[in-house]
Every structure is written in structure tokens, then in C-alpha cells.
Amino acid sequence: MRRTLARNIFFLAILLGLAANPGFGDDPAPEENRFDAAIARIHQSYWQEISREELEERALRALLKELDPYGQLLDATQWGEFRGNLSGTIAGVGVILDSDATGGLQRIQRLLVASAAGAAGARPGDRIEAIDGRSLQGVSLDDVFPLLRGAPGTSVRLRLSQPGASPHEIDVVRKIHNLPSVHGVGRDADGVGDYLLDAAKGIGYLRIDHLSEDSFEAVRGALEDLTSRQASGLVLDLRGSSGGLMMAGVRIADLFLGEGLVGGAEGREESTRQLATASVSWAGPMVVLIDGDTASSSEFLAASLRDHGRARFLGERTFGKGRIQQMYSLGEGRGGLILTTALQVRPSGIATDKHDPPPANESAGVFPDPGLEMHLTDEELASWRKGLEIRASPSPFTPAEFAAAGPDPILDRAVALLTDLEPATPRRP
């Protein structure tokens, strides 16, 4: 037995390519833990030089990936951008860019609401030839964005040109721009949204792109506007809504519910339950649009409305992410962790995460109503996504642009449902 084991280990050493006379090195100090000892040995002896900082980062990323699919390690830049997205703001010059294939430059496609660049004289269609004297010829979009972003109050010089015109330079003072998470069928130059999709039929339209700090007030304001304009039906579009702040989803669900459990969380440190308040901002009929990219807290919002029988559901089964993450800073300039700390609790008690219990939970996610399953063709999906760029843009757009953005058969079906739909009768789970 021992001879067989020794022989196997010998052949394993050959397969692994161990040195003929391997040295096992000195034992680590007794007070040194195994992780630090392994990192130190790899840093010292790996055939290729790798900094200790990079080794620790790789180890942390692997650890988080091993725990569950949703944990992340963010560097300082990613951490700042992630926090900015959740706060609904971004600091920069306030432009949306696309590539000008003819000149190899980046072009201003649209200006954000109250754009700093627009105030300095930039216009849609301008090509950015240089930033602070640096030529952008052949520079990718990914490399241009960091040059335009920066702390509010700092200045950047842009050299702009239009076809057939001489280049000119402008100085832009960076500022905070709002990134709205809730969209309607139009938005004016002051950022005020228009949410009435069909005035003749009295149908409103709300799309939640993600759930951030401004989402609850934006939805409540939109519902108040629709009520004042005698809207009688609502399309709540959660397609492609990848989540965000859990509490925003809870509070928005509460706008549609009069009583009962909205939902909750079950974690190691604490368990929470949120009950609906008596105040309802929208009691009329509604259709919720969902797809495979509806996830996380947006999915929780859909699940809460589904479990209360509050709406019809049209589209595709949602993603199936029912785990809740917290953000933890690792210190100034060192980024942070996104760590799963709890599981979502639906009013119905159905497990919401497709990984719980392992290996797969076939009940996870929110399903469309029977007979209301709809899938876009590849061509329709491409058209819808093109239109989505306008609908989700934090820039002004008109209802006419919304209507001309491309066909949306699922939205058309929702309008047809609402035309003949009786108000849903809420039920207590």
C-alpha cells in the first residue's frame, strides 16, 4: 500500500514538472497564518514577478467568486463609479458620445440635461479632436471617458469641430449631472419627465432603468402627474432593469399596495420585514413588463406586485437573483467589497434565488402570466435596444422621438391589455 502511494506521488511529481531535487524551503514563522505564508512564498518564488498587491487582489477576487456569483472586489475607480450610479449622479462634462467612423474621432451624440459642455457651447454632432491638447485620433471610447470625468469645479479644454468648419476650443467646468433612473415617454431641457403614453386611452408609461436614491421620489412624482392628467392605466416597464438599492424597490412596491407584507430579508446578522402602508399612489390597473435581465431589487419589486395579485405580467421569466448585497469600503483609495449578506423574502414565501437551494431553484424569478409570454426576435430586440438608448438617456427627448425609436411589440401588447383590463383585485398573500 505504502509502495503504491509512494509510486503515485512520484509520478504526480513528474506530471507537475517538479525539480529533480526540489527544495521545500524554510517553514514560515509560527505566528504567520497560512494565507500570508502562501502569498509571501508565491511573491518570492513564482517564476514570474508579481507584486504582493496584485496577488492579494487576485486571491480576494477568487475568494468572492467561490462564495457566490454576486460578490465583487472593486478598485478605487470602480468603487467611485458604482457609488455614483447608486446616488444617481456623475461628475463630468455632461455628454453622450459615439464613434465617428469617417474621422476616427469621438462625436457628441447627445447632451445631458443641464450639460456643462452644452453651457460652454458644445453641440450634438461636434467631434472631439483633442482634450487638454491631447489628440483623440484613434482613441477608443473607453479611454476618452476618464478624460472627461473628474471632480466638480475642475476645468477641461475641448477642441471641437463640425464637418466643413474650422476647429474651435471651449473650456468646460465639470459639474454633477443627474442620471435619472426612471424614464417616461419624454424629458424636457429641465429634466422634467412626460409619462403619458396615450392620452386618448389614458395610459401612462414608467420605465425603471435601475433603482437608485432618486427612484422612489421619481416614481411617486410620475404617478401624481398621471393621476392629475386622468390616466386610467399604467405600464410599468422593468425590462433590462438590473436592480440597485433594495430599499428603493421596497418603497416603490409600497406605492401600489394598501396592506400586507411587501417583502423582507433573511440574513445572519438580522431579519427584516416591511409592511405596506395605507397610502396608495396608484390603485388603477397596470401591466408589468419583465424579461431575463430583470434582476435583483427590480425583480423583488416585480415579485412583491406579483404575490399581491396587483398587476398582469407580460414578457419573459426574470433572472432569478434573490440575494442581497452590502457595500463595504476597504479604505480611502483602496476600493471596496460587494458582499452577499442576506436572502430576499417574497410575500408568498417562495425562494427568489435560482441558486437557493443548490443546484437550481426552478421556482425562482417572476413568471409572465399564462398566455402572456412574449419573446422578441433578434431583429426586434436590436430595434428595441436602439430605441432604449434614447429612452434611457439622461438627456432631453420628445414623445415624438420615443414613438419613432423603433417598434416594441411587447409594449403594444401591454397597451392592448390595458384597453380592456379591469382593475386587478389586490389579495393578501
Structure description:
With 429 residues, this protein is α+β, with helices and mostly antiparallel strands. Helices cover 31% and strands 24% of the residues. It contains 12 helices and 21 strands. It has helices at residues 2-16, 34-45, 52-67, 76-87, 116-119, 141-148, 215-228, 246-254, 296-307, 378-391, 399-403, 409-420; strands spanning 72-74, 89-92, 95-100, 105-111, 127-131, 134-135, 155-161, 168-173, 175-178, 182-183, 186-187, 193-194, 196-198, 203-208, 233-237, 261-267, 271-275, 286-290, 312-315, 323-329, 336-345. Strands 3, 4, 5, 6, 7 and 8 form a 6-stranded antiparallel sheet that branches. Strands 10, 13, 14, 15, 18 and 19 form a 6-stranded mixed sheet that branches. Strands 1, 16, 17, 20 and 21 form a 5-stranded antiparallel sheet that branches. Strand 14 (203-208), helix 7 (215-228) and strand 15 (233-237) form a beta-alpha-beta unit. The N and C termini lie far apart (62 Å). Mean pLDDT is 85; it is low at 9-16 and 422-429.
Q: Calculate Rg over CA atoms.
A: 27 Å
Largest sheet: 6 strands, antiparallel
**Low-pLDDT regions:** 9-16, 422-429
Separation of the first and last Cα atoms: 62 Å
Helix content: 25-40%
Summarize the structure.
By secondary structure, this protein is of the alpha+beta class. It is built from twelve helices and 21 strands.
Topology:
Elements: H1 2-16, H2 34-45, H3 52-67, E1 72-74, H4 76-87, E2 89-92, E3 95-100, E4 105-111, H5 116-119, E5 127-131, E6 134-135, H6 141-148, E7 155-161, E8 168-173, E9 175-178, E10 182-183, E11 186-187, E12 193-194, E13 196-198, E14 203-208, H7 215-228, E15 233-237, H8 246-254, E16 261-267, E17 271-275, E18 286-290, H9 296-307, E19 312-315, E20 323-329, E21 336-345, H10 378-391, H11 399-403, H12 409-420
Parallel strand pairs: 14-15, 15-18, 18-19
Antiparallel strand pairs: 1-21, 2-9, 3-4, 4-5, 5-6, 5-7, 7-8, 10-14, 11-12, 13-14, 16-17, 16-21, 20-21
Helix pairs in contact: 7-8, 8-9
